[in-house]
Amino acid sequence: MQRIKYLVQKEFRQIFREKANLGIIFLMPFVQLLILGFAITTDIKNIKLIIVDKDRTSLSQQVVESFYSSDIFHFQGLASSEKEAILQMDRGRSQTILVIPYNFKRSLETNNQANVQLILDGVDGNSAGIAAGYASQILNTLQQKWIVSKLAKTGNTKIPVHQIILEPRMLYNSSLEGKRNIVPGIVAMLVTMITLFLTAINVVKEKERGTLEQLMVTPLKGYEIIIGKMIPFAILGFALLNVGILAAGVFFGIWISGHLLTLYLLSIIYMGTTLGLGILISTLANNQQQAMLMAWFFSIFSLLLSGFFVPIENMPDVIQLITYLNPLRYYLEVVRGIFLKGSGLFDLWPELLAMTTFGVLIISLASVRFQKRLK
Amino acid sequence: MSNIVEVVNLTRSFGDFKAVDTISFTVKRGEIFGFLGANGAGKTTTIRMLCGLLLPSSGQANIMGYNLYTDYEKIKATIGYMSQKFSLYNDLTVRENIEFYGGVYGLTRKQIKEKTKELLESLNLEKQANTLTAALPLGWKQRLALSTSLLHNPEIIFLDEPTSGIDPVSRRNFWLIIYKLAEQGKTVFVTTHYMNEAEYCNTVSIMKDGKIIALDSPARLKSTYKADKMQDVFMRAIV
Ligand SMILES: Nc1ncnc2c1ncn2[C@@H]1O[C@H](COP(=O)(O)OP(=O)(O)OP(=O)(O)O)[C@@H](O)[C@H]1O
Ligand SMILES: [Mg+2]
């Protein structure tokens, strides 16, 4: 116990000695949270739009206005022809073009139906899809407004009206929900990366410098070295978690709705996995580059398969099965659940169970590999 | 028990390559044992096996009567080791390094304090106590490393090329500490590439390609190889 204390003390001295370290550990995540958080949400917010209004009637004017007042589209102006609008798109001044044809109003009034055309810049397919979804949502709302006012005019509210409600399948229902999913996700990602990378690199660095060999001939037991290495980075990860919680609240207005203590407890359990994995990587890697590479490899895969970018329900069945082997999947569930839904331990016990299992497994594996005797 | 180390047919292979090939020797308590050999002869590999850092492929070894395979935890408490790489933390101060190793070896806070004071005095490092170890000249670093590896008062100390790369004056000072240790009854197992250092040893072993090809006192080796200096003994032995 006393020996572990000295190991932890030494580790902290080394971490705090290097001021750049602290900057990287605490500032970088902060910046990442801001950039990622805002970048992902502003993209969906300010889709550049040019409208070609060939009809120029009161109804087409209403269409223009409803797009103009939307947060999602950034109205760039009217164009006189499709050709001109496409030219603007090629120059990057527009990502979407809405074309309202001649006879828009007449067709609506006589046939109760009219078409508008939406031209999308497919280069960024993701944004294009989202833009299309939003566009139909706006038109839908307008349509409902018209029907309601028409009914009011006839005075006959008893007439059964069948509204066609279009439900576009979108990643995000509104810009707000995207942000709400992403920001807690970034917090989970940061906790994962920091604990994993720092642990792996720290131990490998000692291996490279030869001090690990010196540690191994001391009476320190293997498990004592592992614990002594895990504690400092668990504390750092924990501090970072709080920085993340604070930043999410201050910059994005997303405060956790569940219990802070539940998040703390489950985060600490989760860190068992990432810290253990860091140690495991250090036993496999011979130098810092190798360790970085392995940690990257793991991070990327666990992020892709966690539901951070793509909801797990939208993945192919086989991939969905694989995600069950991904510890981050559970932690992401935990963080989002506590942040957004106010989930408690009672709701999150499957995640608790899964993360505990992973933690125990990986730490045991790391201990076995981290034998006192070098290979 | 006058033999502190007994090695019988110790072997270590890496794949097909035998880095240490069935070597046998004994080290007497209180002697300075010089472990010579060209680069890649297998010196470090041997030391790492004796310190329990590397599992032998075959063979037996006892240190202080403890079996290398079974009593390895007990061995660790009684040996000191200075690896070929610098074994202290460059980004800790001199004092912090001493405190850390003292703590890890189970010294009490009070003992650490006393030892630190004693050590800084004897090494003349009082002024540098709070400077980063990285800033010390190599010769001082190595003496500091030696002193910290002695904090737990080991019976035998393994030094892997402790004087390589340091100036003659520092080397001399380093060897003065080794003599003092031997006077106190400690056993010193040391590897070196400096043949004048080999002259100071009680027993010298010369290794080549994983095998021990010569093992005796410097005086007897010189007469066997009909040489005046250990330098010539070495050259004649390894060709
Ligand atoms: N982990 C390892 N894997 C493979 N080969 C190794 C390993 N460790 C050492 N060797 C090889 O074993 C041989 C002996 O190495 P060792 O480090 O024991 O030599 P040495 O006598 O200490 O040399 P030097 O004077 O350069 O320190 C070398 O050829 C080395 O390349
Ligand atoms: Mg060597």
The proportion of residues in beta strands of chain A is 5-15%
Q: What class do helices, strands and sheet pairing of chain A give?
A: mainly alpha
Mean pLDDT of chain A: 84
Strand content of chain B: 25-35%
Overall tally of domains of chain A:
2
Number of helices of chain B: 9
Number of beta strands of chain A: 4
The mean pLDDT of chain B is 93
Helix content of chain B: 25-40%
Low-pLDDT segments, ≥5 res of chain B:
none
Largest sheet geometry of chain B: 6 strands, mixed
Segments of chain A where pLDDT lies below 50 for 5+ residues? 159-176
Biggest sheet of chain B: strands side by side, in what order? Answer: 6-7-8-3-9-10
Gap from first CA to last CA of chain B: 36 Å
Descriptive overview:
The complex is a heterodimer of chains A (375) and B (239). With 375 residues, chain A is mainly α. Chain A folds into two domains: 2-41 and 177-374, no CATH class; 47-153, abc type-2 transporter like domain (abc type-2 transporter like fold, 3-Layer(aba) Sandwich). Chain A contains 14 helices and four strands. Chain A has helices at 2-17, 19-45, 58-68, 82-90, 104-111, 125-154, 175-209, 211-217, 222-252, 260-284, 288-304, 317-323, 327-341, 349-369; strands spanning 47-53, 73-78, 96-100, 117-120. The radius of gyration of chain A is 27 Å and the shape is elongated. Chain B has 239 residues and is of the alpha/beta class. Chain B contains nine helices and ten strands. In chain B, strands 6-7-8-3-9-10 form a six-stranded mixed sheet, sandwiched between helices. Chain B has a four-stranded antiparallel sheet with strand order 2-1-4-5, covered by helices on one side. The longest helix of chain B has 16 residues, at 168-183. Chain B is globular and about 50 Å long. The N and C termini of chain B lie far apart (36 Å). The model of chain B has no long low-confidence stretch (mean pLDDT 93). Classes of the chains: A mainly alpha (375), B alpha/beta (239). The A-B interface holds A 2-3, 5-7, 9-10, 13-14, 17-18, 209-211, 213-220, 372-374 and B 48, 51-55, 72-73, 76-77, 79, 81, 83-92, 96, 99-101, 103-106. The structure holds adenosine-5'-triphosphate and magnesium ion. Magnesium ion (MG) is lined by residues 43-44, 84, 160 of chain B.
